Amino acid sequence: MSAGCGHSHGHSHDHGGIFEGADPAYRRVLLIVLAINAAMFAVEVAAGAVAGSVALYADALDFAMDAATYGISFWAIGRAAQTRARVALLKGGSLGLMGAGVLVLALWRLFTGAPPEPLTMGLVGLMALAANVGSAVLLYRWRNGDANVASVWQCSRNDAIGNVLVCVAALGVFGTGSALPDLIVASLMAGLFLNSSFRIVRQALGELRMAGAQAE
């Protein structure tokens, strides 16, 4: 773990002992991770086009969603509980749509696409893995916050797992000369998106119900 993942000495928890993002250190980390994800989205879109890889496109979409997630999460910090839960609900729904879109693309490429170029896939996958492991380490200490904060951690975790899968797909394509490993990994990543979508939406709905009950 990095030095930034030690114990917080500021306002690390808010109402009811649940961290809501008020720590200035968390805000700084959120902006750093946002910049990393925006840069890697651009890199992977270009690399996906060059390599013809659905897995790279899926990972690029994940970077784009994460950059948007971090920006929205930064905006939501300090706002009412219902607002933060609604933001998390929006993010969870968007993640689900992204997962469904990747599955459709993978099925389409199964019948129409040529094998991707594995060297580009592997190099970009390793670069993205380094970026996302660093992001996940920076965010690790805040992984158990409210739905808004927790969704940020889950997105970073998804990215790191996704990058490992992209590297595995590159090895599979190199070894077999087939597009199938790329499409399998893209489908696995879509499943990960859908699983996280379900978890985020479920937690956000619970927090919305709790906030409504407290308002009565």
How is this structure best described in words?
There is one protein chain. The chain has 216 residues and is an all-alpha fold. It has helices at residues 24-51, 54-76, 81-112, 118-139, 147-176, 180-215. Helix content is 79%, strand content 0%. The chain has one domain: Alpha-lytic protease prodomain-like (Up-down Bundle), CATH 1.20.1510.
What key phrases describe this protein's structure?
elongated, Alpha-lytic protease prodomain-like, disordered N terminus, 6 helices, mainly alpha, 216 residues
Q: Secondary structure elements and their pairing?
A:
Blueprint: H1 24-51, H2 54-76, H3 81-112, H4 118-139, H5 147-176, H6 180-215
Helix pairs in contact: 1-2, 1-4, 2-3, 2-5, 2-6, 3-6, 4-5, 5-6
**What general form does the structure show?**
elongated
Broad CATH class: Mainly Alpha
Count the DSSP helices: 6
Rg from alpha-carbon coordinates = 18 Å
Unreliable parts: 1-16
Largest sheet: none
Fold-level CATH name: Alpha-lytic protease prodomain-like
The H/E string reads HHHHHH
The CATH level-2 architecture is identified as: Up-down Bundle
Structural class: mainly alpha
How much of the residues is beta strand, in percent?
A: under 5%
Return the domain count: 1
Please provide the count of β strands: 0
